[in-house]
Amino acid sequence: MSLHPTAVIAADVRLGANVRIGPYAVIEEDVVLGDDCEIAAHAVIKRHTRMGARNRIAEHAVIGGDPQDFKFKADCLSYTEIGDDNWLREGVTLHRGSRQGSATRLGNGCFLMAYSHIAHDCVVGNNVVMANTAGIAGEVVVHDRAFISAAVTVHQFCRIGRNAMIGLSAKVVQDALPFCITDGNPGRARGLNLVGLRRNGFGKDEIGALKEAYRLLYSRVPLAEALQLMKAMGSPAVAEVADFIAGSKRGFAHPTRSQRFQRRRTKLRYFRIVKPGKAALDLDVAARRAPGLECGSLPPSFPAPPCLCESPSTVTAASAAVFCAPCRSPRCAGRSR
């Protein structure tokens, strides 16, 4: 055991074997530190904190502080519970529960990078990574092996599923699906977290089943029917996603509308025609409204505009795929680009 003489340690603190406490660290009353814990210089462990073995608390971290909640009473007895083998870097803040007898819980093997924040009454699972300045609001649940990128903000009462990845600076206001990447403002599902799945030992069959389940979620199948189909797949991972969605109270981060039509759009050439004095018209939209229309052609009733660079000329639907390079207008039939 190594206790620096400038450290301030309350009389009733219970210390395990081989605990190291650095200079000017503060350990308040009713704190339990497990074996082989290391508290660096200027770190503060607030009252009613319970910490397991082999945890490392870096400089200027504040663990177990009072919650930032107007309903909190100063005499409320609540706790902060931390498991084993966690690494909390510089400036990390973790607040205790906001209600009598409640607790904020951090699991085992988590890595909280500099200045990340966990608010009151959160439950964070095992092997979770929070990058620099990421913050989760009160009563958020983070499942095992989730990765929360830098500068992410998570709204209170949200859930982050197992093996989920939250992209840089995302704003999460609904539940983030397990095994998926959630990104954007507001956060939306962007696809499977394939790298994370492979690193965590998911096989090809499991990943294939998750891909099929993900396609169901952004298809036009009603959600209740999609969940039944997912559970019938016989994959434990897919069943976990279905149960996660069924238990959602805030809704879940759906795939974006652009993703739903992504495959369809890639099969259509993208044309933009500018009419004098009018807004641009995307011809892939016009093509979707005209079934059977070949790519690069216009509906027969569509009035083709003249070339904006040269003198006006009559343009037919058959010649609509020939464009003027400078202004992107159709040129007359038989003339080259």
The number of E-state strands comes to 30
Provide the structure class.
Answer: alpha/beta
| Overall geometry | elongated
Which range does the strand content fall in? 15-25%
Give the uncertain stretches in residue-range form: 260-337
Mean pLDDT: 84
| Rg, Cα atoms, Å | 28 Å
**Number of DSSP helices?**
7
Mind describing the biggest β-sheet? 11 strands, mixed
Give helix % range: 10-25%
Strand order of the largest sheet: 1-4-7-10-13-16-19-22-25-27-28
* Cα separation of the termini: 81 Å
Describe, in short, the structure shown:
The chain is of the alpha/beta class and 337 residues long. Helices cover 16% and strands 22% of the residues. The strands form four sheets. An eleven-stranded mixed β-sheet has the order 1-4-7-10-13-16-19-22-25-27-28.
Q: What features would you describe in this structure?
A:
- This protein is α/β, with parallel strands linked by helices and 337 residues long.
- The chain has 7 helices and 30 strands.
- β29 and β30 form a beta hairpin.
- It is elongated.
- Mean pLDDT is 84; it is low at 260-337.
